[in-house]
Specification:
With 575 residues, the protein is mainly alpha-helical. Helix content is 57%, strand content 6%. It contains 23 helices and nine strands. Helix 10 packs parallel to helix 12. The longest helix has 71 residues. It is elongated, with a radius of gyration of 41 Å.
């Protein structure tokens, strides 16, 4: 960081009861009040360099004391004191941190070259152009300092010049970057990397407020020099700095304490970031989009911004990982999933490559949702309706097998042991037996948490496979599987003797199971007969329609011949 040293005298200013003065043999004859601070100074050195003070003290002589109130001093008492010390020749240091208030205060005091040659304003402007604007961190720090005096900085052209200098350096090829910069990415070691990273500038400009940051990013985007992914990375770095909850938003609830002021500030930051995301797909990661979307409810962002986030996240949803999803907002995940399916339905399959890509994407999302269900199934407050609704949103084409879905249901049943029969039936109704692997089916039929109806369906499916000879491995017979599924640890009877047999309830259950199996077999047979009848009826209907069409054609041809013969008879009669 560069600085400019002015003056040679030692600093003799001191404070006494909220009054600032300096050691001098000459009594003070100028009193200046700035907010809560009072200065006891001398007219001679200040009037010689400050046009404003010269004008205000023009009606009095040096022997008389003047009292001036300058409460609108930009930069307050600190900035004024730098100007006063310059007038006394006291040593001061000017850097990017105090340049802005010093220039604004000196401008108000009219410390120009027209008042005295080599005045404060001229020296400050020379330092600004030759040192601050030439440096990277100096330009950024000076621009940050303008946030306290935005109107003065804008009118004096400080903001525009700093932004131009920053953008010029950002657009410089990394190989030509020779200045120092801040880069603290995890795992990055500058000693091991001899080349400058492409996103070297993102951390330094993240210290700016959202308005200045937006001005820089939008100007860079308009040049079309940097790739969209680099713009997206700068947005991600900025969000991580100003929205710290973005790091843990997927694993925390929505009850984050925040004042109305901080909520409004965060809402503005989030909405502005969303508006700056490049339109190019992949300019930001889907994980970043999903985290912003999770925070949108927390900060109450506008519907427009939330809709845009849902749209952008759904387009890249197949790239997401389970850790990207919010574990406490299943409904939000379902909204993104539904938007993803709508988006892909609008895309024309086109060639074979496009169809394969579409299919792969949907199956990736199906796998993602099933893995996500396994996580949220452990939540004691997860409702069956929400769990089932999300599972059912995945289309059949999105699941080649139901092993992961079974695992999620199994976890849910273990955690929520108080479920009613109706809820268990609703939960297990989304499983398809034929899409379970043999190993999972073998586990399922012995799973005591599954409802009896589901076990029966699994047994029936195994029996049907055995009859059709489609199983390549030797499976147990249905009644053996049923006994294995419902086998309990040995109990003791009323006399205390160890009993290895089934109790009455289990015998009843076995009888009910056999009846249910027979009923389902009979029902399936009736369905097959009904389908055959429907097919025969359809064939008969087609034949009848064809016959009617042929008869109608014959009638038309007969009428045509009759009209033709009548026409010939009439012409013969006229002859």
């Amino acid at each position: 960081m560069k600085f400019m040293k002015l003056g040679t005298r030692s600093d003799t200013f001191y404070t006494e009861q909220a009054t600032r003065s300096l050691v001098s043999d000459i009594p003070p004859n100028l009193v200046i009040k700035i907010n809560d601070t009072t200065y006891l100074l001398h007219k001679s050195p200040l009037i010689s360099k400050c046009g404003l003070l010269r004008r205000l003290c023009s009606d009095t002589n040096d022997s008389e004391s003047d009292v001036l109130e300058l409460h609108d001093m930009p930069g307050g008492s600190e900035a004024f004191e730098l100007c006063a010390k310059f007038c006394y020749g006291i040593s001061i240091n000017i850097s990017a941190y105090n340049f802005v208030p010093s220039l604004c205060a000196s401008k108000l005091l009219q410390m120009n070259e027209s008042i005295e040659r080599g005045n404060f304003v001229g020296k400050l402007e020379s330092f600004f152009g030759s040192c601050i604007l030439e440096g990277w961190k100096d330009s950024v720090s000076t621009l940050q300092a303008t946030e306290k005096l935005p109107e003065w900085s804008e009118n004096l052209g400080i903001i525009r010049k700093c932004i131009d200098s920053i953008i010029e350096k950002i657009l410089t090829p990394p190989s030509q970057v020779k200045w120092s910069y801040t880069y603290t990415r995890p795992g990055y070691n500058r000693k091991q990397h001899h080349s400058v990273p492409k996103d070297w500038w993102t951390e330094d400009i993240s210290i700016l407020n959202i308005d200045l940051f937006r001005c820089i990013i939008m100007t860079i985007r308009s040049t079309h020099v940097l790739p969209p992914q680099l713009i997206g990375e700068s947005l991600h770095v900025y969000a991580c700095k100003w929205l710290p909850c973005i790091i843990n938003v997927q694993s925390s609830g929505s009850s984050v304490s925040q004042t109305e002021e901080s909520k409004e500030k965060n809402r503005k930051i989030l909405e502005t970031i969303v508006s700056m995301i490049p339109a190019d797909r992949g300019s930001v990661s889907v994980g970043f989009l999903l985290k912003l979307l999770s925070m949108s409810n927390l900060f109450g962002v506008s519907t427009v911004s939330k809709t845009e986030l849902i749209k952008r996240a759904s387009i890249q949803f197949h790239e997401a990982k389970v850790s990207d999803l919010n574990f406490y907002d299943v409904e939000l995940v379902q909204v993104v999933l539904e938007s993803f399916l709508k988006f892909w339905k609008r895309i024309s399959p086109g060639d074979a490559d496009n169809r394969h890509y579409l299919l792969r994407s949907i199956r990736k999302v199906g796998k993602l949702v099933d893995s996500y269900l396994q996580v949220v199934a452990r939540d004691d407050n997860m409702e069956v309706s929400k769990f089932v609704a999300l599972a059912e949103t995945v289309p059949a084409i999105g699941r080649l097998e139901h092993d992961d879905l079974y695992q999620a249901i199994n976890i849910y049943l273990k955690v929520h042991s108080e479920l009613s029969k109706a809820e268990k039936k609703r939960l297990c109704g989304i499983l398809e037996c034929q899409k379970l692997s043999p190993e999972v089916r073998a586990h399922a039929v012995k799973n005591e948490f599954l409802p009896l109806r589901t076990v029966v369906q699994l047994l029936y499916y195994e029996q049907e496979k055995d009859l059709n000879g489609t199983t390549s491995t030797k499976l147990q017979k249905p009644h053996e599987l049923l006994l294995g599924a419902k086998m309990r640890p040995a109990t003791r009877d009323s006399n205390g003797k160890r009993s290895l047999g089934l109790d009455k309830e289990e015998f009843k259950r076995e009888d009910i199971t056999r009846k249910a199996s027979l009923a389902e077999s009979r029902e399936k047979s009736e369905h097959k007969t009904q389908r055959l009848d429907d097919k025969l009826a359809l064939d008969l209907e087609k034949k009848m329609v064809i016959r009617e069409v042929k008869e109608e054609a014959k009638k038309k041809m007969s009428i045509g011949r009759t009209r033709s013969s009548k026409s010939e008879y009439g012409s013969e009669k006229r002859r």
